Amino acid sequence: MAVANLTMSPAQFESLRKVVYKRSGIYFQDSKKYVLESRLSRRLEELGFSNFDEYLMFLTTGPYQTDEFQEMFNRITINETSFFRNEPQLEVFEKQVLSKLLEARKSKKQLRIWSSASSTGEEPYTLAIQLHRSLGVRLSDWNIEILGTDISQKALETAQSGKYASYSIRSMNPLILKRYFTEEDGFFKLDPTIMSMVRFELLNLKDAYAAKRFGTWDVIFCRNVMIYFDDAMKTHCVKMFHDQLADDGTLFIGHSESLRNIPVPFEPMPIPQAFSYMKKAGA
Length: 283
Hints:
With 283 residues, the chain is an alpha/beta fold. The protein has eleven helices and ten strands. A hairpin with a 7-residue loop joins strand 9 and strand 10. 35% of the residues are buried.
């Protein structure tokens, strides 16, 4: 039975929206109802369901609910990212934040960076390239840990493959592309050295307890994710980042995001294009 044009009733939409929010913290506005309908209708067809009530039952009960949530989440989210996205901000990271941290950590020679919504891996791999270029031959003297986490298993599998289409490298300097990628069958394969600098873990940002096991970070990136959160979920995430950030560490957020009205003691760095925050002194 074809269900390409299947629609949700207001009650079905509200139930599905609550499930998504409870599991991920992502809140779909009323205006996004059509997004859920269009992206999930094909899934209902694959499962042999004729309406969203049947799908909601499948999603919330029985032995497959965890797997199905992953499948659903892969379909309703857009992993829009690329290498060296928002380059002015990354320049602030490399030229100002990273240089200061490397100086401050020169005795222990240990640096930890968390890309908390790493999607298909372009962001943490970009940071690895920047570190590789900044440290050069000194890299082997350092213990560098870069962690990429995401709620989507499918996105993480792409990240771990290190294989990207041309769309992902569209913003990259040709010299960097030539240095760190090899073209294979129309795709671009990342240098194994850079891949070895990053590890990936499945993580739901709602789960602060699970995130806490990763310890303290010198830099945390959470870009272009909190735009999908309501104030309660934003506060939850920002508090979690604050708790896990080193006292002289830095939090980077997306250029369309803000911590305004979030009751967590961060203060913005007074640098244009930084979109970054540090802990308030004495907080």
